[in-house]
Specification:
By secondary structure, the protein is α+β, with helices and mostly antiparallel strands. Helix content is 30%, strand content 40%. A 7-stranded mixed sheet has the order 1-2-3-4-5-7-6, sandwiched between helices. It is globular and about 35 Å long. It comes from Pseudoalteromonas luteoviolacea S4054.
Length: 145
């Protein structure tokens, strides 16, 4: 069973470790402990911990940009290919609707992240723009909820 809850500062060390997994690092820009602490203090940044069977299994970083718009900045799950991420994303969307009256969620994903692109497409996110980050192609995707 997947559950989401506001992340606690004491989870940051685990988040840093999760970001360092070899199957995660190529697809994100990892943060240091200090960067996570600073982001967690930002009033527009929302950290949600993902629990699978009551064990901390991942996290989201979300950013409120407008009254009804959320940037889905990051999802990291410690065990891939078990469906945890997909279930957590669906719950995150419901969380955003319930807590922030969200109407639009957007994200960017490296073009090389084929697993991420497959999941986002499967969950109804659609490309609306492309960009580059340090020479790497990014695909910007959105979903109206």
């Amino acid at each position: 069973m997947i559950e989401l809850a506001p992340a606690l500062p004491e989870h940051i060390d685990a988040f840093v470790v999760m970001e360092q997994h070899s199957d995660t690092t190529p697809f994100i820009i990892p943060y240091t402990n200090a960067q996570h602490q600073a982001e967690m203090r930002n009033q527009d940044t929302i950290y949600l911990s993902i629990y699978s069977n009551k064990a901390l299994s991942g996290f989201f970083i979300l950013v409120r940009h407008a009254n009804t718009e959320i940037e889905f900045r990051r999802v990291v799950v410690d065990s891939k290919c078990r469906g945890i991420g997909q279930q957590a994303i669906a719950q995150m969307e419901q969380y955003c609707i319930a807590h922030f009256d969200t109407q639009r969620i957007w994200l960017d994903v490296f073009e090389s992240n084929q697993r991420g692109l497959h999941i986002y497409n499967k969950l109804g996110y659609r490309q609306f723009k492309t960009a580059l980050h340090q020479g790497q192609p990014l695909i910007l995707m959105e979903k109206y909820v």
